[in-house]
Amino acid sequence: MEIDIRTFRPKDAHECSFLIRETLRKVNRKDYPQEVISFLSNEMSPKKMLKISKERHFLVAVKNKNIIGTGTIEDGTIQTVFVHPNFLGKNVGSTLMNSLEEFSLKSGKRKISLYSSITAVEFYNKLGYHKKKKVDTGPRGWTWLMEKHI
User: Fold this and answer.
1) Bridge-partner residues for 71, per DSSP?
2) What is the mean pLDDT of the chain?
3) CA distance 138 to 79
4) SS3 category, 8
5) Which residues pair with 77 in a beta bridge?
6) Phi/psi at 91 (nearest 5 deg)?
7) Can you name the residues that pair with 132 across neighbouring β-strands?
8) Which CATH superfamily is domain 4-109 in?
9) Residue 15 in this model has a pLDDT that exceeds 80
10) H or E element that contains 93
């Protein structure tokens, strides 16, 4: 499948917010209670996407002019990795992760960390990330701190 990875643009805010909210509601809900999904959905507004884009390196995966995935990195920590439910298992997530890891390498970071949802632990394991500890993030639910040396 042909996808392009590019830097987030301010006009992407609404589409990214919608994609993240859809993924939370359709994919993450199997591992988290409704109050966590609601909290995260409310948090991931278009306004929040614009704020994140000013703080982190923010990438989007695009197919046929539609955003089908997101991912960010800041100081060796990967965050906000979401793939539209219709494109799970089609290399979108791993392509985004490769681009984020390349950015980290160019920035001089040799160790990458991330906080994985319970839903995504297996995906990150396949990419070489290892669980370090389980973390209670309050209203965001439980996550796993994971690391990889690159």
Assistant:
1) 59
2) 96
3) 17
4) coil
5) 74, 113
6) 75, 10
7) none
8) Gcn5-related N-acetyltransferase (GNAT) (3.40.630.30)
9) yes
10) helix 92-106
**Amino acid in position 78:** I
Two structure tokens written together for 51: 């704020």
Residue 119: which residues within 8 A CB-CB, separation 6 or more?
A: 27, 28, 30, 31, 32
Quick one: average pLDDT of 124-150?
95
Q: What percent of the chain has pLDDT over 90?
A: 95
Specify the amino acid at residue 57.
H
- Give the tokens for residue 115: 């906080």
- Give the containing element (helix H, strand E) for 123: helix 121-126
pTM for the structure as a whole = 0.94
What pLDDT digit, counting tens, does each position of 82-124 carry?
Answer: 999 999 999 999 999 999 999 999 998 989 999 999 999 999 9
Asked if 123 contacts 93 with a C-beta cutoff of 8 angstroms, the reply is: yes
